[in-house]
Design goal:
This protein is mainly α. The chain has one domain. Helix 3 packs antiparallel against helix 4 and helix 6 packs antiparallel against helix 7. Helix content is 74%, strand content 0%.
């Protein structure tokens, strides 16, 4: 139980590190005052260019990957593992270091946790699906809105095939709720036709 409590605290606090905010501040830009006013890598890319956005994204992936990776090593209870996997996304969306405001949307942190949870063999085809949706829409918010549902569907399918425990499907559902809630303003802009396209080019 001590390991679980310690990993849970680490997962939330590590997820709360406002990567895009810190990178922006280092370059003299406050991402909370531009674009979507959120600490997302997309907003960072709008402010400083796609290279900085990619760096922010990599760190946000690590925020989900490392706690989940440690959780799988040190914990044996699947319910405890998925809670540790969910907490970085919660921390990213509601960062204690920014008084629970201006959080990100959680997609990259979710990717990192998912990769650590299910492994590259299962994660890679799902990431290819994410990339295809993004390439077709060029709208990050829409892609990240759709993808957690696809992930949850596959987790249920793979659970039925015996590849993963039911708790991994529950992880997908909770992450879907967190990310969809964080994207509520994006949903409103999508319905109004005002959601901007990604600054990333192919």
């Amino acid at each position: 139980m001590f390991k679980f409590i310690l990993l849970s605290i680490f997962a939330y606090l590590f997820g709360s590190i406002p990567t895009a905010f810190l990178i922006g501040k280092a370059k003299g830009v406050d991402v909370r005052e531009i674009g979507s006013k959120s600490i997302t890598e997309t907003n960072l890319a709008r402010a400083l260019g796609w290279r900085y956005g990619m760096v922010g994204g990599i760190f946000d992936v690590l925020k989900g990957f490392l706690p989940t990776f440690f959780g799988k090593i040190f914990l044996t209870n699947n319910w405890q593992i998925i809670l540790v996997a969910i907490l970085p996304t919660l921390g990213h969306n509601l960062p204690i270091f920014l008084k629970f405001k201006h959080g990100g949307r959680g997609a990259s942190t979710f990717f990192g946790a998912s990769l650590a949870l299910i492994g590259i063999k299962f994660f890679l085809p799902l990431f290819i699906l994410w990339f295809l949706i993004f390439a077709l829409t060029r709208i990050t918010g829409l892609t990240n809105l759709i993808f957690p549902w696809i992930f949850s569907f596959f987790m249920y399918f793979w659970y039925k095939l015996g590849f993963f425990p039911l708790q991994y499907f529950i992880f997908g559902i909770f992450e879907t709720i967190l990310i969809n809630f964080a994207l509520r303003n994006n949903i409103k802009r999508l319905l109004e036709g005002k959601e901007p396209k990604s600054p990333l080019k192919f």
